[in-house]
Amino acid sequence: MIDLDRVVRDTPAAAHGVFLDSAGSSLPPSVVVETVAAHQRREAQVGGYRAAEERAADLAAVRTSLGLLLNVPVGTLALTDSATRAWTQFFYAVPLAPGDRILLCGVEYASNAVAALQRAAATGATVEYVPSDPTGQIDLDALAGMLDDRVRVVSLVHVPTNGGLVNPVREVVDLAHAHGALVLLDACQSLGQLRVDATALGVDALSGTGRKWLRGPRGTGFLYVRPGLVTALEPPVIDLFGASWTGRQSYALADDATRFELWESDVAGRLGLGAAVDYLLALGPDAVESAVTAHAATLRGLLAEIPGVTVRDRGVRRCGLVTFSVEGRDPAEVKAALRARDVTLVTTRRKSTLIDMTERGLEQFLRASPHYFLGPDQLATAARAVADLAR
Ligand SMILES: *Cc1c(COP(=O)(O)O)cnc(C)c1O
């Protein structure tokens, strides 16, 4: 159980208005803000290098905390500046030859898709899309039919940016592995709201971001690469952190996942990410998952009762993203009108999840993502505000 009084005390801003954008960039707890600010102040006093040296143990602990959260060994993790950087560092490292196949999912995220298309054009591989089933989740039968030994990599988005569905991961991994294909899981929208055990899921790689449900700072992200696979891959971009210059014509890559990492980083942001992960671990990922799932179900129920409102979420299993349209109202206008009442949410557009939105004939709708730090009264307030606009 989440102690609402306590988490609101830890995040005073959560009590003001109704913040419904934890899927975009959440409100960090005070400990994250303080960790970042304190390190920046220290950098201003003694310089960034000395300040980082003073926090060497804490910086190492960021990886330990992430390892605990994902249930993976520390050496399988690379810290990055975004989930997209993590995703591309892995994806571009997968060897591809003419005729090789890349499978993307029906709710693929635009940044992943454009990278896959670019890579396919450069290597002669092809990009294909695994259809979604009538519930909206990845069609496992269709996937089984598409897999063959030319499929090198399957990209699966755990939770899409445009709705509350949760894709089945283990089933996809088992099917893909039977054909020797790698599975790269985009866990941007699941980590921090759902328990994600990368080892139990069996994925080959996973990308995540700090600022969304994890409540960490902007400009932070990370990559997990399964043990045993790390040393088989040559990262597309390296520097003196992931590799050492060993001679006139030689270099050696790090033998753990730091080979995917670059040297320069926002050290304060990384410490803040560690604080955010520790905060989540202390609350308990299961308690967070129950609270977020329940909040989203409540909000979805309230919205569904409003005449003129259509809830857009699909999927068998649903999580913290709540999407909807208001009949006859432009989503951008609804978003602005709600902001004027201090209800913060965003719109999600066709271009972000092109295949899914095009198939559903939708251009844009609203996305609300309530975190555990909201109270039931705030969800009711948000629904009342939407009802006023729907009239
Ligand atoms: C936000 C998001 C990303 C990208 O994360 P960044 O940290 O902005 O790179 C990738 N996939 C999904 C599903 C997302 O929602």
TrEMBL record:
Domain Aminotransferase class V, first and last residues per copy: 18-369
The reaction(s) this protein catalyses: S-(hercyn-2-yl)-L-cysteine S-oxide + AH2 + H(+) = ergothioneine + pyruvate + A + NH4(+)
Necessary cofactors: pyridoxal 5'-phosphate
Superkingdom of origin: Bacteria
Pathways per UniProt: Amino-acid biosynthesis; ergothioneine biosynthesis
Keywords on record: Lyase, Pyridoxal phosphate, Transferase
Family: Belongs to the class-V pyridoxal-phosphate-dependent aminotransferase family. EgtE subfamily.
Job of this protein: Probably catalyzes the conversion of hercynylcysteine sulfoxide to ergothioneine.
UniProt-recorded name of the protein: Probable hercynylcysteine sulfoxide lyase
Species, as recorded: Longispora fulva
Lineage: Bacteria, Bacillati, Actinomycetota, Actinomycetes, Micromonosporales
